[in-house]
Amino acid sequence: MVFFKHDSVAYRPLLSVPRSASAKLLAVLAVLSVLFISHSFLPSSLKPTLSFSSARARGTCPPSSWAAGKWVPKPPPTRRTNLTQSSDVYEFLGIEACASSREVYWHLAADNDRLWDRFPAVSSWRWEPQTDCHIRELDSTRIVRDLVEQGGWLLIGDSVTENHFFSLSCLLYPHVRATPDYRENPYFDRAWPQNLYLDPSSPLAKTLSFPPGFDIETTPLVTFRRIDLLFEQPALDALYRSLHPDSPIAAGNRSLFSDEAAWNLQPSEYVKLFTAPAPRGNYATMVVSTGGHWTTTLFAGLRDPALPKDGIQNVVQFFGEAMEAWAREVQALLDEAERADTALVRGRKRAPRQVVVRAYLPGHEDCHDHREPYTEVQPGKWGWYNWNQIKDFNRQFEAVLESRKYPDIHFLPIDRPALLRPDAHAAGDCLHIMTGAGVLEGWSHYIWHYVTVELPGRVR
Questions:
Q1: CA 193 → CA 28, 270, 353, 408, distances in Å?
Q2: Alpha-carbon gap, residue 227 to 156, rounded angstroms
Q3: Which of 154, 269, 354, 435 has the greatest count of CB atoms below 10 A from its CB?
Q4: Model confidence over 414-452: pLDDT tens digits?
Q5: DSSP code of 221?
Q6: Cβ neighbour number for residue 233 with a 10 Å cutoff
Q7: How confident is the model at residue 350 (pLDDT cuts 50, 70, 90)?
Q8: DSSP E strands, 113-260
């Protein structure tokens, strides 16, 4: 293609193309058309990979570099040294307030005065990743902007994931409001959705570029759904029988499960929520975590007293099989939603929806005896619950997601910062994590970085 007259080339009008080049140009356009069509309509696992050079760094802090850091002291958020009433805990944690009203002092670990001596030391630590890990400072206003303009987060998991949701409601305050209001009605079932919405009174509201269809009143920035096992229990029964037709469970048409309480939905239900168009949804990232309820007490059909830990490895093995089935179903649902989006909204670019699986976290058996972080991860002494096997569950899930069959689902092994914080648990037990100690805030910090910087196609 010739744009300017040159002494050695006969002059042609601007943008004219010699006949010999016309066929070549048409061929190039045909190839590009085929690539575009295949990229639009094929499932993710079959799409051609297009790679273009760019001066922008695609990755500055992979999960391994983040998790390999250490806790270092930082100045306490207050000069006061004695917490004397629960309402003062915000000052001792360096938190202005929290949008969520669910079990506030439990989440802030201020509901047991016998453990108030932990303050303010428990909030006087910060996570320092490896020196090769370049990551932006945690900035709540930038996170809110990204949740609106790039897409929100759907949190799927058990009560530890609910800890994460509550922490986000504090981190993003005063720019968000939360529903439901547990002060008006504290009896909402645990399965009830919890949401964070942009607060119309936030000074950010006038500066944001809202996606088409976004409604401040009805489009969530963050949603939490209580889903313990990622599948409903009858679906897991059916999966086990299909994979193990000669087992006693299948032969006797028995259930795997005891009557222990658990809250669950099928992937088709929560992926439907995840991919819902505005104004009902504007999600770009689904954050998933599971493992705590995969025990021999809930999975009583896999319990075997003749084996170590009552046969917990039976549960671990089935967990791996179930997560393979889960990844296969979720990726197929994402592919289907992407094809539907492409058919309905021609020419509009949106970041691909991504799923990140946060490694699950065990508890610390003697947590309330500790007042500072570990320097090395310590295994449990007594093997409470399934805590010493959580690493096995995580390895199973990570191994499943190493496959290229699931390009939109990513495993984040970022559990080490929490494993080093026996001092950062809620006051009522040694599994749940308190808000304000830096652990939950670290999850938000890294996930925000990962989905906006590390993931291909999401670099801005």
A1: 50, 11, 20, 24
A2: 6
A3: 435
A4: 999 999 999 999 999 999 999 999 999 999 999 999 999
A5: S
A6: 16
A7: low
A8: 125-128, 152-157, 176-179, 194-198, 222-226
